[in-house]
């Protein structure tokens, strides 16, 4: 079924389903949405099942032309999105007609926007997922891990009954300009950090470095001291906060390597990793210690809410 034609390609627009799982023993990373929260809301608003492919647009600069009548939702960052040259509503369903244009400008609030269409975007499945990982040349609309290019055609799965008009609650529409408080589960090596470093880790402001992408985000602040210089490499999870010898933490995201040997301060929760993925370089963030029980309850509730919404 016709979806959109790319009339102008931005720097990084990728197809992302929920991610590629069960293959890290092969050295293949996860992929999937950098901001799970905004991605899930985009699918829920359009009535799609959990795991349906959504377009993740980083930095903007993209222009799409609709090739059919579609129901869409735009969530995540405010990239100055316009529908037929008028400001497009975000965090709610929107009807677009054949010939309509969607234009993504530059970041005004956050870094990554998500475009879902009722029925879901269609992409080539590789190793059980269409999640696009450019470095590994896997997934995406062509199965080769390419970001969108001018002239590409995005096809969609045929939707059933169009979903009723929906909007996300105001409480779910994050203001990404506010300081991000990142919940962190203390890790196995946390006792190897000095007392002063632990105090600084949870009380200092950290700044997002220019060296930030879908693989990870470097943070700058007080140098953290650890008695462990390096470890035998072990599996790395989404949100792992490694501390290399320079003492500046690196929070690893969806396109991270599968193993690593730096000591870890801990692990960001999935929602904290999502929030960090929306932070611009230079933005301030703080860590907040979190417990496993409350974190599990919150994440299970989030999954249940969105699975239920997609089944409606």
UniProtKB/TrEMBL annotation:
Q: Which SMART domains has this protein been placed in?
A: AHS2 (SM00797)
Q: Name one Pfam family in it.
A: CT_A_B
Q: Which UniProt keywords apply?
A: ATP-binding, Hydrolase, Nucleotide-binding
Q: Which InterPro entries match?
A: CT_A_B, Cyclophilin-like_dom_sf, PxpC
Q: Name one GO molecular function term.
A: ATP binding
Q: Where is the Carboxyltransferase domain?
A: 25-307
This one is known as: Allophanate hydrolase
């Amino acid at each position: 079924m016709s979806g959109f034609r790319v009339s102008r390609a931005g720097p990084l627009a990728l197809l992302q389903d929920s991610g590629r799982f069960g293959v890290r023993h092969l050295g293949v990373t996860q992929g999937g949405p950098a901001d799970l929260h905004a991605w899930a809301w985009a699918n829920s608003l359009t009535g799609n099942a959990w795991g349906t492919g959504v377009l993740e647009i980083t930095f903007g600069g993209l222009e799409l032309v609709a090739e059919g009548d579609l129901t869409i939702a735009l969530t995540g960052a405010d990239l100055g999105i316009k529908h037929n040259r008028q400001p497009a509503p975000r965090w709610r369903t929107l009807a677009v007609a054949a010939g309509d244009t969607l234009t993504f400008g530059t970041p005004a609030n956050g870094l990554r926007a998500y475009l879902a269409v009722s029925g879901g975007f269609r992409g080539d499945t590789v190793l059980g997922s269409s999640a696009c990982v450019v470095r590994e040349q896997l997934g995406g609309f062509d199965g080769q891990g390419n970001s969108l290019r001018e002239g590409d055609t995005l096809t969609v799965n045929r939707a059933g009954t169009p979903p009723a008009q929906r909007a996300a609650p105001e409480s779910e529409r994050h203001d990404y300009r506010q300081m991000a408080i990142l919940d962190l589960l203390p890790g196995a090596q946390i006792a190897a950090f000095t007392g002063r470093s632990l105090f600084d880790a949870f009380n200092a402001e950290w700044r997002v470095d220019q060296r930030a992408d879908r693989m990870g985000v470097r943070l700058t602040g007080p140098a953290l001291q650890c008695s462990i210089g390096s470890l035998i490499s072990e599996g790395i999870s989404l949100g792992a906060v490694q501390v290399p010898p320079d003492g500046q933490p690196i929070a690893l995201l969806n396109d991270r390597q599968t193993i690593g040997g730096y000591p870890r301060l801990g692990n960001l929760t999935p929602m904290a990793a999502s929030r960090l993925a929306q932070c611009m370089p230079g933005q301030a963030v703080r860590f907040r210690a979190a417990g496993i029980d409350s974190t599990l309850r919150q994440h299970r509730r989030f999954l249940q809410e969105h699975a239920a919404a997609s089944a409606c």
